[in-house]
Amino acid sequence: MTDDIDALIANTLKDEDRALLARAGAEPGYFHQLGEAFGGPTGWVNVVLMITQTLLFIGGVWAAWRFFQATEALEALRWGLPSAVLILSSLMLKLAIWPVIHANRTIHALRRLELQLALRRQARD
Predict the structure, then answer these.
(1) What is the pLDDT of residues 46-57, one digit of tens each?
(2) 79 close to 72: Cβ distance less than 8 angstroms
(3) CB of 86 within 8 A of CB of 57?
(4) Is the pTM value of this prediction over 0.85?
(5) Could you write out the three-class secondary structure of the chain?
(6) What is the rounded CA–CA span in Å between residue 28 and residue 50?
């Protein structure tokens, strides 16, 4: 649907307007959006979250390794429960970054919309 709207907008614009819209840029890719999540004034928070998430995941994998090597039920519980908690905690921290990515996508879409409205306003004047 987005491609259809973009194609419709591109067909209705003048050459000068197309050049201006091209400077605004197309929808950035996923990895570019992920990189933007680690920049800006609050990027350090996401860096800390990712470091913490990585440490929790490594600890969870280590505890899972010990769980699978356990020979007794009590020892398996001793390593299995912390493993599950650490891995799930790391997943929750990773999911905390997704709203930042979606907020950046929304801001990018709003900027494109503002540019289109400005172009229409210029065309009327």
Answers:
(1) 889 899 999 999
(2) no
(3) yes
(4) no
(5) CHHHHHHHHHHHCCHHHHHHHHHHCCCCCHHHHHHHHCCCCCHHHHHHHHHHHHHHHHHHHHHHHHHHHCCCHHHHHHHHHHHHHHHHHHHHHHHCCHHHHHHHHHHHHHHHHHHHHHHHHHHHC
(6) 22
